[in-house]
Amino acid sequence: MPPQLLPASAAAFAPRATSVNVVLSSKVEPWLTQTLKRINRVKRPLNSVPQHQRCLTETLSSSTAIWTLTSLMLQKAPEADLRKDSNPLVEALFNYQLIHVEAYIVHVDMVLRNEVAYKLTPDSIESLIEYHKEVHCVDISANTYNWSEKELQVKKIHEEFIQAINKFVYRTHVTALEGLEEDGAGELLCGKSEEVKNNIMGLFLPLLPPPPRIVDVVRPQPLLPSSPAGANWWTQSTIQTSIPAPVDSWRVLPSSPSTTASSDNSTLWANMAVNEIQLPSPTPSFSQPFSSAGYYYSSPPVSAPIPALPLPSMLAQQPCGISVGYGGFGWDSRFQDYATTM
């Protein structure tokens, strides 16, 4: 990489030199010849490299050879002092200002780097420093919290900006000289003004407060149960669900038999022996309800009491005879009368 050759006038806080340092190659570009012929009111001979160099040096060294690098729309006052209005045009007129960033050429190199170097004028530097102090520093200080070294940090940022803006030198290709006008003034072409704007706004640094201190938060230790039985109460929850014991489907009978259940019950009654069931005489005309607890009949809703039927164990204790099985109905005492009559 070739060394950066800049004159002493390009240093920070250096005054403008009386003569611009111009270095041309052994062959002059045709566009440079046409540009010099266009800006010179008095026709001057441009037949050699020294003639081009002399003409360009005298033109750029003039006090009127001021270039407009870019224009910045900046606030007139801090945010807290800005005027509030429903009309955006009124706010723009009263709250913002347009600063034209101007510079002069300090160096032209068409041999090593093919570049042109610009340095800001004292008026532009003063305007940017004033805006940085009165608006930018106030805003960044108001938008951050307070700490012990806040004012010192803001002051340091402003001092750094003063140094940076005085050292600011913009470099671009030598073709920028095509924007040269009469008396050496000019304007950057091909969108270079936006690049200058971004470079200058990058010098407005934000205020970075120190990170908050990390405070160790002491949390109370959770109390754990001391008894072994409850040691795992918080790790695992034991949920006991009562699972009913399996019941055979033939043991489950509905409490109120319906039409569908009657077909299933008919098979059940068909499998039962005749001697296992005894019905009162006469048979009631209504169906007796079942109980889900087992095969037990509930008492029929009759007005007269029904005589109890003898159990097989009771019949076994009586002597065998013709009256067996009929004593419950009172037929054994009058059987002889019936036989004589017959």
What does this 3D model show about the protein?
30% of the residues lie in helices and 11% in strands. It has 342 residues and is of the alpha/beta class. Strand 3 and strand 4 (115-120) form a beta hairpin. The longest helix has 21 residues, at 122-142. The protein starts with 20 loop residues before the first strand and ends with a helix.
Q: Can you give me a brief rundown of this structure?
A:
With 342 residues, the chain is of the alpha/beta class. The chain has a domain of 184 residues.
How do the strands and helices of this protein lay out in sequence?
Elements lengths: L20 E3 L6 H10 L9 H12 L6 E9 L12 H8 E14 L5 E6 L1 H21 L7 H18 L1 E5 L12 E2 L4 H10 L57 H13 L40 H5 L18 H7 L1
Parallel strand pairs: 1-3, 2-6
Antiparallel strand pairs: 2-3, 3-4, 4-5
Q: What is the structural class?
A: alpha/beta
Average pLDDT over all residues: 77
Distance between the termini: 153 Å
Helix content: 25-40%
Question: What general outline do the C-alpha atoms trace?
Answer: elongated
Largest sheet features: 6 strands, mixed
Q: What is the CA-atom radius of gyration, in angstroms?
A: 58 Å
Strand proportion = 5-15%
Number of strands: 6
Quaternary: single chain
Helix-strand sequence: EHHEHEEHHEEHHHH
Highlighted features:
elongated, 342 residues, alpha/beta, single chain
